[in-house]
Amino acid sequence: MTVRRTLFGRPLRGVAFDVAVSGVVVLFSLTAAVNQPGGWASTGVGAAMAVVLLLRRTHPSAVTVVVAALALVQVIARWGPLPYDVAVLIALYSVVKYGERLRDGVLAGAVAAVGVLLAAAQTPGVGAWWATALWYALVTGAVWLVALNVRTRRLYVLTLEERATTLEREREAESRAAVAEERTRIARELHDVVAHSMAVMIVQADGARFMLDRDPEQARTAVKVVADTGRAALEEMRRLVGVLRDAGPSAGSVVAADPEHRRLALAELPDLLARFRAAGLRIHDTTTGETPTLPPGLELTVYRVVQEALTNALKHAGVGAAVDVTLAYGADAVVVRVADDGRGRPVVSPAPSGGHGLLGMRERVTVYDGSLTAGAQATGGWQVEVRLPLPSEPATEVIAA
Questions:
Q1: Residue 181: half-sphere exposure toward Cβ, Cα within 13 Å
Q2: CA–CA distance, 348 with 330 (Å, rounded to integer)
């Protein structure tokens, strides 16, 4: 990192340059005491100009006014142009370059034009008056134009720096928003893992307790389901918590690079159905159409919809309920339908609600512009049907909430 030395809040290099410029003006003013009109009085005017020029960067307009007033004193005293009058050009350059408003520079240029005429009128020597005035005007105009060009470039650079700073702040804000969004997604996944798995475990644990004395074999099966479900939930929670713990400025890329996260999709549906069959549901699953290559986030949405619907069937329809799970793949959409007959055995103590249920499913489906319908069937039981449009182009996202 570069450390800039400062003096009174100003860069040390700029202060040294201004001191050198003022020193040159002081040397020019000393020559007036030897062989120029005005003697020591004109030297004092030149020295005053030199001192004022030290503030030309911070107070350019005020410096120009003072230098112009001192130059007017010189004109009134009829000392004619002197070497230290270079201070007038320096002040003109400074007000055009550093002035807050360009109109200050324009006004200073107009005053300098009047000064050119007065200086040409008092210039001794041979030559036409208009030729001297033209020479002074060319020099003064050149200084003014150079200062204007430098001012334009300076403001342009400042604009670019400000724009770069703004873009950097926007990138940081977008990065923080992406991190927050990804953490929210992971938190929602954690909710699904806990809510669905705990619902199954509670139902099976209550069933095992109820059947412990009547049917020990069935009780052992229920306890095994509890253990398997808890073990699977713990493994998935470890993956998600690991991603959340490592989430930094590039949390989205961490999730994207996690191959374990991609595994939890349609390929896992058979295992999911097996767990719910072991939990007591009589599931009949059907798949129609050719399975397309879906974006990972869309696959996860299908998985979570089936998981949520089966969890609700286990909690509300009861153990032993018959459930039809249908996945229909069409040319433009995938349709998921989960329907139960509502004729299962009531559980001993229903599992508490996960807190989101249909609202969580509807939120997931909305992400992909899908539709969800849910309600009781005329023949009994409950049905959930989700339609998810297929993307027209290959998707690039990795996981969707």
A1: 12
A2: 41
3-class SS of residue 79: coil
Which DSSP helix (H) or strand (E) runs through 373?
strand 371-376
Instruction: Characterise 289 by phi-psi region: left (phi > 0), alpha (psi -120 to 50), beta (else).
Output: left
Find all residues with CB under 8 Å of 209, minimum gap 6, and list them. 219, 348
Number of H helices, E strands in the chain: 12, 7
Task: Report pLDDT digits (tens) over 321-379.
Answer: 999 999 999 888 999 999 999 888 765 444 444 445 677 788 778 877 889 999 998 88
pLDDT at 258: 44
Q: What is the mean pLDDT of residues 216-224?
A: 78
- Asked whether 112 and 140 are in contact (CB, 8 A), the reply is yes
Query: Two tokens at 308?
Result: 């949520």
What are the start-end ranges of the E strands in 171-262? Answer: none
Nearest to 114 by CA among 136, 94, 129, 87: 136
* Whether the predicted pLDDT of 397 surpasses 50: no
Q: 216, 237 in Cβ contact below 8 A?
A: no
Q: pLDDT at position 322, please?
A: 93
Provide DSSP, 323-358.
EEEEEEE-SSEEEEEEEE-S-SBPPSSPPPP-S-TH
State the chain's maximal CA–CA distance in angstroms: 132
Q: Which residues contact 4 (CB under 8 A, 6 or more apart)?
A: 11, 12
